[in-house]
Amino acid sequence: PPDVEQLGRATWTFLHTTAAYYPDRPTPRQKANMYSLLSSLPILYPCTHCAADLGENVKSHPPDVSGRVGLSRWLCERHNEVNEKLGKPIFDCSIKKTDERWKDGPSD
Ligand code: FAD
Protein backbone atom coordinates (compact mmCIF):
# COMPACT_ATOMS: atom_id res chain seq x y z
CA PRO A 1 0.00 0.00 0.00
CA PRO A 2 1.16 3.61 -0.58
CA ASP A 3 2.80 5.69 2.14
CA VAL A 4 -0.27 7.70 3.20
CA GLU A 5 1.76 10.57 4.69
CA GLN A 6 4.06 11.07 1.72
CA LEU A 7 1.18 10.66 -0.73
CA GLY A 8 -0.79 13.21 1.30
CA ARG A 9 1.97 15.84 1.30
CA ALA A 10 2.55 15.39 -2.43
CA THR A 11 -1.16 15.56 -3.23
CA TRP A 12 -1.81 18.66 -1.08
CA THR A 13 1.20 20.33 -2.73
CA PHE A 14 -0.20 19.61 -6.17
CA LEU A 15 -3.76 20.64 -5.31
CA HIS A 16 -2.97 23.84 -3.36
CA THR A 17 -0.40 24.95 -5.96
CA THR A 18 -2.82 24.28 -8.81
CA ALA A 19 -5.52 26.27 -6.95
CA ALA A 20 -3.10 29.16 -6.28
CA TYR A 21 -2.40 29.48 -10.02
CA TYR A 22 -5.99 28.80 -11.19
CA PRO A 23 -7.35 31.84 -13.09
CA ASP A 24 -9.38 34.56 -11.38
CA ARG A 25 -11.82 34.22 -14.27
CA PRO A 26 -11.62 30.63 -15.53
CA THR A 27 -13.20 29.65 -18.82
CA PRO A 28 -16.13 27.21 -18.76
CA ARG A 29 -13.70 24.55 -19.95
CA GLN A 30 -11.26 25.24 -17.12
CA LYS A 31 -14.09 25.15 -14.60
CA ALA A 32 -15.40 21.84 -15.95
CA ASN A 33 -11.94 20.29 -15.88
CA MET A 34 -11.22 21.46 -12.34
CA TYR A 35 -14.58 20.14 -11.20
CA SER A 36 -13.80 16.83 -12.86
CA LEU A 37 -10.33 16.64 -11.28
CA LEU A 38 -11.70 17.24 -7.79
CA SER A 39 -14.69 14.93 -8.25
CA SER A 40 -12.33 12.15 -9.30
CA LEU A 41 -10.35 12.13 -6.06
CA PRO A 42 -12.95 10.33 -3.92
CA ILE A 43 -13.05 7.62 -6.60
CA LEU A 44 -9.36 7.31 -7.51
CA TYR A 45 -7.28 8.46 -4.53
CA PRO A 46 -5.19 5.43 -3.56
CA CYS A 47 -5.81 5.64 0.21
CA THR A 48 -9.21 4.00 0.43
CA HIS A 49 -10.33 5.32 3.81
CA CYS A 50 -9.05 8.83 2.96
CA ALA A 51 -11.00 8.73 -0.30
CA ALA A 52 -14.20 7.59 1.44
CA ASP A 53 -14.01 10.42 4.01
CA LEU A 54 -13.22 12.93 1.31
CA GLY A 55 -16.26 11.76 -0.66
CA GLU A 56 -18.53 12.51 2.33
CA ASN A 57 -16.79 15.84 2.88
CA VAL A 58 -17.18 16.90 -0.78
CA LYS A 59 -20.81 15.76 -0.87
CA SER A 60 -21.71 18.34 1.78
CA HIS A 61 -19.31 20.97 0.31
CA PRO A 62 -19.33 20.90 -3.50
CA PRO A 63 -16.13 22.24 -5.13
CA ASP A 64 -16.06 26.03 -5.67
CA VAL A 65 -14.47 26.31 -9.11
CA SER A 66 -15.62 29.93 -9.68
CA GLY A 67 -12.09 31.35 -9.49
CA ARG A 68 -8.76 31.06 -7.68
CA VAL A 69 -9.85 32.86 -4.49
CA GLY A 70 -12.89 30.65 -3.98
CA LEU A 71 -11.06 27.50 -5.00
CA SER A 72 -8.09 28.17 -2.71
CA ARG A 73 -10.45 28.67 0.23
CA TRP A 74 -12.56 25.62 -0.59
CA LEU A 75 -9.47 23.41 -0.75
CA CYS A 76 -8.01 24.90 2.42
CA GLU A 77 -11.25 24.13 4.25
CA ARG A 78 -11.28 20.53 3.00
CA HIS A 79 -7.65 20.15 4.09
CA ASN A 80 -8.57 21.60 7.50
CA GLU A 81 -11.25 18.94 7.93
CA VAL A 82 -8.53 16.32 7.49
CA ASN A 83 -6.21 18.27 9.83
CA GLU A 84 -8.92 18.32 12.46
CA LYS A 85 -9.50 14.58 12.13
CA LEU A 86 -5.76 13.90 12.48
CA GLY A 87 -5.20 16.40 15.32
CA LYS A 88 -3.00 18.65 13.14
CA PRO A 89 -3.02 22.48 13.37
CA ILE A 90 -5.83 24.35 11.58
CA PHE A 91 -4.61 26.62 8.74
CA ASP A 92 -5.84 30.23 8.21
CA CYS A 93 -7.79 30.04 4.93
CA SER A 94 -7.55 33.74 3.98
CA ILE A 95 -6.14 34.25 0.45
CA LYS A 96 -3.23 36.14 2.01
CA LYS A 97 -2.13 33.04 3.94
CA THR A 98 -2.81 30.48 1.22
CA ASP A 99 -0.94 32.63 -1.35
CA GLU A 100 1.94 33.13 1.04
CA ARG A 101 2.28 29.36 1.50
CA TRP A 102 1.51 28.16 -2.04
CA LYS A 103 2.28 31.03 -4.42
CA ASP A 104 4.26 34.05 -3.29
CA GLY A 105 6.26 32.91 -0.29
CA PRO A 106 6.68 35.13 2.79
CA SER A 107 6.88 38.86 1.95
CA ASP A 108 10.18 39.59 3.73
P1 FAD B 1 0.02 18.00 5.29
O1 FAD B 1 -1.31 17.91 5.95
O2 FAD B 1 0.32 17.05 4.20
O3 FAD B 1 0.19 19.49 4.76
C1 FAD B 1 1.32 19.89 3.98
C2 FAD B 1 1.54 21.38 4.18
O4 FAD B 1 0.37 22.07 3.77
C3 FAD B 1 1.69 21.81 5.64
O5 FAD B 1 3.01 21.68 6.04
C4 FAD B 1 1.21 23.23 5.64
O6 FAD B 1 2.24 24.13 5.27
C5 FAD B 1 0.19 23.26 4.55
N1 FAD B 1 -1.21 23.22 5.04
C6 FAD B 1 -1.69 22.58 6.14
N2 FAD B 1 -3.01 22.73 6.22
C7 FAD B 1 -3.38 23.49 5.16
C8 FAD B 1 -4.63 23.99 4.71
N3 FAD B 1 -5.78 23.73 5.36
N4 FAD B 1 -4.66 24.74 3.58
C9 FAD B 1 -3.51 25.01 2.91
N5 FAD B 1 -2.30 24.56 3.28
C10 FAD B 1 -2.23 23.81 4.40
N6 FAD B 1 -4.20 10.95 6.20
C11 FAD B 1 -4.76 10.12 7.11
O7 FAD B 1 -4.06 9.58 7.95
N7 FAD B 1 -6.11 9.88 7.09
C12 FAD B 1 -6.95 10.45 6.16
O8 FAD B 1 -8.15 10.20 6.15
C13 FAD B 1 -6.36 11.32 5.19
N8 FAD B 1 -7.12 11.87 4.21
C14 FAD B 1 -6.52 12.60 3.24
C15 FAD B 1 -7.30 13.10 2.19
C16 FAD B 1 -6.72 13.80 1.16
C17 FAD B 1 -7.56 14.31 0.02
C18 FAD B 1 -5.31 14.03 1.16
C19 FAD B 1 -4.66 14.76 0.03
C20 FAD B 1 -4.54 13.56 2.20
C21 FAD B 1 -5.11 12.83 3.25
N9 FAD B 1 -4.35 12.34 4.31
C22 FAD B 1 -4.95 11.53 5.25
C23 FAD B 1 -2.92 12.71 4.46
C24 FAD B 1 -2.77 13.90 5.44
O9 FAD B 1 -3.67 14.96 5.10
C25 FAD B 1 -1.36 14.49 5.43
O10 FAD B 1 -0.99 14.82 4.10
C26 FAD B 1 -0.28 13.61 6.02
O11 FAD B 1 -0.68 13.19 7.31
C27 FAD B 1 1.06 14.38 6.13
O12 FAD B 1 0.84 15.51 6.97
P2 FAD B 1 1.83 16.71 7.14
O13 FAD B 1 1.81 17.05 8.60
O14 FAD B 1 3.13 16.45 6.49
O15 FAD B 1 1.15 17.97 6.40
Structure commentary:
The chain is an all-alpha fold and 108 residues long. It has a domain at 48-103: Four Helix Bundle (Hemerythrin (Met), subunit A) (Up-down Bundle), CATH 1.20.120.310. It has 5 helices and no strands. Helix 1 (4-20) packs antiparallel against helix 4 (68-86) and helix 1 (4-20) packs across helix 5 (95-104). The radius of gyration is 14 Å and the shape is globular. The model has no long low-confidence stretch (mean pLDDT 96). The structure holds flavin-adenine dinucleotide. Residues 4-5, 8-9, 11-12, 16, 41, 45, 49-50, 53-54, 76, 79-80, 82-83, 86, 88, 91, 98, 101 line the site of flavin-adenine dinucleotide (FAD).
Set out the fold topology.
Elements: H1 4-20, H2 28-44, H3 48-60, H4 68-86, H5 95-104
Helix pairs in contact: 1-4, 1-5, 2-3
The structure holds flavin-adenine dinucleotide.
Subcellular location: Mitochondrion intermembrane space
Protein name: Sulfhydryl oxidase
Cofactor: FAD
